[in-house]
């Protein structure tokens, strides 16, 4: 039985070309073009930024040797005589990031394990959105919280010695850690929840406790997502600007003493960028050189984490 | 067209050699008035049965009759479903399985379980076997234990050269036998199997059935199956479940008949069993 009658535009089977498209579908092409354009915007922006970083950085390294830049321990590019050793900025960034991770990784992963493996589903449905709101607080608020609440608190409770300075890496790093807890917790929880229930059933049926199921079965299976969560947390910490600009001060400092103020790479870029450096001056070019270094650092970290994950994760599909 | 009497699962299947029934004098489980609720819904109603030692008990019945729900009561896997609630009593060697002092983890070390879909951990074959002993604090030589266990489960010759490779590289049937091996590595008394062959081809199924038959000399096995031939082939006793639909359209599973397998398949006492066995519904 063929049913071409009843008003349908369908040619009879067997007539020439009866399987050809019966009506043009222009809309589909337009939508595809729009979707491609949408995805290209972010890729093009990234490539554009990289390209924009290169010429001023090259210009910078014509004046300052790469060796001096990467191994120098004094950073005073805008003073006379200028020094272009970037290590104090790198040290400040690493110090603050390390403190932030010491706060965010244990608390974030703890929250993720709790939400994914222990919490009642109803509790989780309340808890997770609340956690994610924490990620939406503007960083300037965190910055003042660090400067006006955490630093004074640290001074009050400091047991011995002078305690932290007004601007210090400890308060900035701590608050930054609090800021990235939701990022780590939420992403890690997503990847742990995605581990098939059959694996948990298998582990429980062998007499595992909840903690054993979490650490020996769910955690290794979710490792790639967990590492991705931590890497994103690190990227946010390395790239975070407002908190460190407000609470860690503006003095380059290679002491690695968390109680002292120090300037991070991002804080330098912000401070120098809003100043009135003439375009093309060596001071102006330093911004790009530091920016390029920041970019390379995050890139290397991402590549390393991908290799790490490939080596250790337990693929469950 | 085949005549109804030739249909698979019919009562006239001379090729099946039924296994001798064994005594229920030394029961492992005694189930009395067991009901299971999911939220307000009573999924299974008033099940009473006695499970004998070192024999295979099959649970058969149409989809939605609650047989999987019932088997998950025997090692308290239903505890993991937040809305599930169990009423009535299951005694395990005269101890109330749902007693207040009972630790479900201890229960599951004595009563292991194999699932419908093979679920080896995404670890090496070795680590899959070693998992259970490790979490229960095994102190002896793991290498020996792994070899013994795999030999016991008739899997050693197939995997001895690739113990360090991922369990997921095995075929579905091998994965399921690995899951059975993983279960016996903790030396349980009982093995629960929830449709262990439903994802496998007939050859892999035959291997699992062989394994079940050999394991039934040492272990007490309860198996849920959709395959009536399988129940007829491997089990000593068979429980037939079905579902009643009430006036609100909700299904309540219940145990219709429980007897020696040969009686269930050749002289069922209940008309519903007869209808199911002969392929008239389900």
UniProtKB/TrEMBL annotation, chain A:
Subcellular compartments: Cell membrane; Membrane
Key words of the record: Cell membrane, Membrane, Phosphate transport, Transmembrane, Transmembrane helix, Transport
Stretch forming the signal peptide: none
Keyword presence, Transport: yes
InterPro entries the record matches: MetI-like, MetI-like_sf, Phosphate_PstC
Membrane topology: Multi-pass membrane protein
Region (Disordered): 1-23
Pfam family, one: BPD_transp_1
Transmembrane portions of the chain: 30-54, 86-114, 126-147, 167-188, 217-235, 282-304
Predominant localisation class: membrane
Entry's Gene Ontology cellular component terms: plasma membrane
GO BP: any one term: phosphate ion transport
MF annotations from Gene Ontology: phosphate transmembrane transporter activity
Residues of the ABC transmembrane type-1 domain: 90-305
Primary role: Part of the binding-protein-dependent transport system for phosphate; probably responsible for the translocation of the substrate across the membrane.
Family: Belongs to the binding-protein-dependent transport system permease family. CysTW subfamily.
Protein name as it appears in the record: Phosphate transport system permease protein
Organism: Streptomyces coryli
Organism ancestry: Bacteria, Bacillati, Actinomycetota, Actinomycetes, Kitasatosporales
Automatic annotation (TrEMBL), chain B:
Domain ABC transporter: residue ranges: 29-268
Record keywords, A-Z: ATP-binding, Nucleotide-binding, Translocase, Transport
A UniProt-annotated Pfam family: ABC_tran
Highest taxon in the source lineage: Bacteria
GO BP terms, alphabetized: phosphate ion transmembrane transport
GO molecular function: ATP binding; ATP hydrolysis activity; phosphate transmembrane transporter activity
Classification via PROSITE patterns: ABC_TRANSPORTER_1, ABC_TRANSPORTER_2
Protein name stated in the entry: Phosphate ABC transporter ATP-binding protein
The species this protein was found in: Streptomyces coryli
Phylogenetic placement of the source organism: Bacteria, Bacillati, Actinomycetota, Actinomycetes, Kitasatosporales
């Amino acid at each position: 039985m063929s049913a071409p009658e009843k008003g349908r535009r369908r040619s009879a089977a067997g007539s020439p070309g009866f399987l050809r498209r019966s009506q043009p579908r222009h809309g589909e092409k337009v939508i595809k073009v729009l979707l491609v354009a949408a995805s290209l915007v972010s890729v093009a922006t990234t490539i554009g930024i990289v390209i924009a970083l290169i010429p001023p950085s090259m210009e910078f390294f014509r004046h300052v040797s790469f060796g001096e830049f990467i191994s120098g321990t004094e950073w005073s590019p805008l003073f006379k005589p200028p020094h272009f050793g970037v290590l104090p900025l790198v040290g400040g960034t690493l110090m603050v990031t390390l403190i932030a991770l010491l706060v965010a990784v244990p608390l974030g992963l703890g929250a993720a394990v709790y939400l994914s493996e222990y919490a009642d589903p109803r509790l989780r449905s309340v808890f997770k959105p609340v956690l994610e709101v924490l990620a939406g607080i503007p960083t300037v608020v965190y910055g003042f919280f660090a400067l006006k609440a955490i630093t004074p608190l640290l001074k009050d409770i400091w047991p011995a010695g002078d305690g932290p300075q007004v601007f210090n890496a400890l308060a900035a790093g701590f608050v930054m850690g609090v800021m990235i807890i939701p990022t780590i917790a939420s992403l890690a929880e997503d990847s742990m929840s995605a581990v098939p229930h059959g694996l948990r059933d298998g582990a429980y049926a062998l007499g595992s406790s909840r903690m054993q199921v979490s650490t020996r079965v769910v955690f290794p299976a979710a490792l790639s997502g967990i590492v991705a969560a931590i890497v994103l947390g690190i990227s946010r910490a390395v790239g975070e600007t407002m908190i460190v600009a407000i609470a860690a001060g503006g003095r380059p400092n290679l002491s690695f003493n968390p109680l002292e103020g120090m300037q991070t790479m991002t804080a330098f870029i912000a401070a120098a960028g809003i100043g009135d450096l003439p375009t093309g001056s060596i001071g102006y070019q330093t911004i790009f050189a530091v920016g390029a270094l920041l970019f390379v650092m995050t890139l290397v970290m991402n590549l390393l984490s991908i290799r790490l994950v490939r080596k250790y994760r337990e693929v469950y599909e | 067209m085949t005549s109804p009497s030739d249909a698979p699962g019919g009562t006239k299947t001379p090729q099946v050699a039924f296994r001798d029934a064994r005594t229920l004098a030394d029961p492992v489980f005694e189930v009395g008035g067991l009901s299971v609720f999911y939220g307000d819904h009573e999924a299974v109603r008033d099940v009473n049965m006695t499970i004998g030692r070192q024999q295979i008990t099959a649970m058969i019945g149409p989809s939605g009759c609650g047989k999987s729900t019932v088997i998950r009561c025997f090692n308290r896997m239903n505890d993991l479903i937040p809305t599930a609630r169990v009423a009535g009593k299951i005694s395990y060697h005269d101890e109330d399985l749902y007693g207040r002092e009972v630790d479900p983890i201890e229960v599951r070390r004595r009563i292991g379980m194999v699932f419908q879909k093979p679920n080896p951990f995404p670890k090496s074959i070795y680590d899959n076997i070693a998992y259970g002993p490790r979490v229960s604090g095994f102190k002896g030589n793991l290498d020996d234990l792994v070899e013994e266990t795999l030999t016991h489960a008739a899997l050693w010759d197939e995997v001895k050269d690739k113990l360090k490779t991922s369990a997921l590289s095995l075929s579905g049937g091998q994965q399921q036998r690995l899951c059975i091996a993983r279960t016996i590595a903790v030396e349980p008394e009982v093995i629960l199997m929830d449709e262990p062959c439903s994802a496998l081809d007939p050859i892999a199924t035959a291997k699992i059935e062989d394994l079940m038959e050999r394991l039934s000399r040492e272990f007490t096995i309860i198996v849920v199956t959709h395959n009536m031939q399988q129940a007829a082939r491997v089990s000593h006793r068979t429980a037939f479940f079905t579902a009643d639909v009430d006036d609100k359209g909700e299904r309540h599973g219940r145990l219709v008949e429980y007897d020696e397998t040969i009686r269930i398949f050749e002289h069922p006492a209940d008309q519903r069993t007869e209808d199911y066995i002969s392929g008239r519904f389900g």
